Amino acid sequence: MLYRAEGIVIRSTDYGEGNKIVTLLTPTFGKQGIVVRGAKKLKSRYGALAQLFTYGDYSYYRNGTLGTLNSGEIIESFQELRQGLEGPAYAAYAAELTDRAINDDEAAAYLFHQLKACQTALAEGKDPQIVARAYEMKVFAAAGYAPMLDECVSCGRTDGPFYFSAAGGGALCRSCKSRDPGAMELQDGVWKLLRVFLALDMRRLGAITVKDSSKRQLQLALRKWMDAHLNVNLKSRGFLDQLEKYGELLGQAPVTKRPEAAAPASAPDIDFGDEATPGEGAG
Fold first, then answer.
1. What local confidence, expressed as pLDDT, does residue 123 receive?
2. pLDDT digits (tens, 9 = 90+) for 31-85
3. What DSSP string describes 186-225?
4. Quick one: which of 96, 125, 178, 211 has the fewest CB in 10 Å?
5. For residue 240, which of 134, 127, 115, 86 has the smallest C-alpha distance?
6. Where does 2-77 sit in CATH, by number?
7. How many angstroms separate the CA atoms of 77 and 79, rounded?
8. pLDDT at residue number 252
9. Strand pairing of 170-173 and 162-165?
10. Cβ(252)–Cβ(89) below 8 Å
11. How far is the C-alpha of 194 from the C-alpha of 106, rounded, in Å?
């Protein structure tokens, strides 16, 4: 049967002498595996359609678990995400996280649009750490593991202060903190960012600036959450962590010191609190 769908390439692997198998995230059929014959050949008509991050229109035959490309057209190549270190590192992380953490039946249209918005934000030069943390929350929610942030997961108390418990499922109040000795105390601004990221449609993500200390807390909290609930070992995560820590040594300016412009007037009014004041420089 012939299918047609828009899709983003989230995995591309060699297959045989000159072919590739790509995994597409589509808004209509979830994740789809397609063989692109001759994709590795220099003069291949469809080689570019098999490149990671490509957003295209794919027509393919499918009878079993794998389809075979019939024809296709690139809608957006996202060439910017194949240049330098930073773009490829964060985009590869988002693609691998999507592929590994999301089952075929969980890959709905909403997640497709969130991934496309994530790639667009990275290509536009928005702070990659903030983009990555926001997209992680989209993946957690799609996989059914969104943290509870507005009330204590143990007793239901709605007034803080709260502690972030990856093992417990989200927020723990002071009285219930003993249930998880490893629960983290987070800055107020980090709690605000977590709540915003969980609710935000990434297509409306403006340009913001966040303190280094807040970025570190966000990363640590969401790394702990991922390890506790998704149990996936991502090759791209190790490199990304090294890039964030040793960017200068790798020939890339540290992403924690990336200058970020204030949100444009057309951006939605989102209150990120004191931790994301436009124009606030890295410490």
1. 96
2. 999 999 999 888 888 999 999 999 999 999 998 889 999 999 999 999 999 998 8
3. --HHHHHHHHHHHH--GGG-------HHHHHHHHHHHHHH
4. 178
5. 86
6. 2.40.50.140
7. 5
8. 53
9. antiparallel
10. no
11. 22
